Amino acid sequence: MLCNKNMYTCAVVLAFLLASVSIDRIDGAPDGAPLGACATMTPGHGVDPQLINSSPFKTEIPSGEYAIMDNTLNLELRSKNDVTTYKGFLVMAFDKNDATNTPIGTFKLPSDGKVIDCSGIVGSAATHKFNNEKKLTTVQWTPPKNFMGTAIFRTTYVHNVTTFWVKTESIAVTYVMELPTSSTQAPVATTPSSASQLSKTWISLITFSLMAYLMR
Ligand SMILES: *[C@@H]1O[C@H](CO)[C@@H](O)[C@H](O)[C@H]1NC(C)=O
Fold first, then answer.
1. Which parts of the sequence belong to the Reelin domain (predicted)?
2. 20 to 30 A Cα–Cα from 179, which one of 32, 36, 69, 108?
3. How much distance in Å is there from the Cα of 77 to the middle of ligand 1?
4. How many whole angstroms separate alpha carbon 148 and alpha carbon 56?
């Protein structure tokens, strides 16, 4: 077998295979917001968005307006009346006190959708993968390491090609060291990050290739 004869070639081939798989996953999907829509969060449908206050959809954070530093949040992208459906969505997190409009943190595990890299930041947004009619999508978001500010989530919901709501806002979630005593919210459980596991895999692969190369 190739791998027994030449470890270096084997590692390189494997690395390329893995790289092409992850590129396909981002660019080759049949649907979802394109990276060009990241800045405005507006679909290129050529019609005006609906008034934001009339949105039949909302992005809920069941754990409430406080979260412990570094803890992952669960988001729910919902139909308010449980009847009206959305075909598409794009959600990003922002620092409420930063006007630069740069998304923060990383998304993972959308129940119906995929994670994309807006503003060149890995995993900074989640969008739909197929344009099936949805009433609820759950997704997890992890803040930047040691983030102690206030995060707000902006979501664009697409009901159909002519009817969509741009940048609907969630409640603000403030990251703290300890929950305020007046709060009855339980701390949110942290879940192991699959993203960090992925990068660990990459690091070991690269290290392995290097070692194999040096030890030829
Ligand atoms: C989009 O949805 C609106 C509201 O439900 C509806 O009035 C309109 O006819 C729909 N447009 C298309 C192109 O389906």
1. 23-192
2. 108
3. 20
4. 31
pTM recorded for the entire structure:
0.72
Residue type, position 183, single letter: S
Cα 76 to averaged position of ligand 1 atoms, centre (Å) = 24
Q: If DSSP codes are grouped into helix, strand and coil, which group holds residue 52?
A: helix
Reported as a single tens digit per residue, the pLDDT across 98-131 is 999 899 999 999 999 999 999 999 999 999 999 9
Q: Is 161 in the pocket of ligand 1 (CB under 6 A)?
A: yes
Tell me whether residue 169 is exposed, middle or buried, using C-beta atoms within 10 angstroms of its C-beta: 0 to 12, 13 to 18, 19 or more: middle
Cβ–Cβ < 8 Å for 144, 46: no
- How close is the Cα of 55 to the center of ligand 1, in Å? 14
How many CB atoms are closer than 10 A to CB 103? 21
Whether 74 and 140 have beta carbons less than 8 Å apart is answered as yes
Which residue CA neighbors atom 7 of ligand 1 most closely? Answer: 163
- Provide the 3-class DSSP secondary structure of residue 141: strand
